[in-house]
Design brief:
Elements lengths: L6 H15 L6 H40 L12 H10 L1
Helix pairs in contact: 1-2
């Protein structure tokens, strides 16, 4: 299953994982392997969702700061190259 870099694709991946775990034909070592894989994916997902939440909070705060005429600290700005890649992906 190819990994995509959006929360939308992450959601699809999680539902595919649930479908796989619900497969009644999955038993023994195959089931154990899928359970371990699901645990690893779950931990990674929790980290990604946490990071996305932090990014959202930072974006909202930066929006408030800029609305008040305060310049965003340089360390919080994305590199120009990252902004160019993001714009091309839209």
């Amino acid at each position: 299953m190819p990994l995509k870099n959006t929360l939308y694709h992450l959601n699809d991946t999680l539902f595919e994982l649930i479908d796989k775990l619900n497969d009644e034909g999955l038993t023994g070592a195959d089931l154990e392997r899928e359970i371990k894989r699901a645990g690893a994916i779950n931990q990674t997902t929790a980290n990604l969702v946490s990071i996305a939440g932090l990014a959202l909070k930072a974006t909202l705060e930066m929006s408030n700061i800029e609305a008040d005429g305060v310049k965003t600290p340089r360390m919080l700005e994305a590199p120009k190259a990252a902004l160019t890649v993001e714009a091309k992906n839209k």
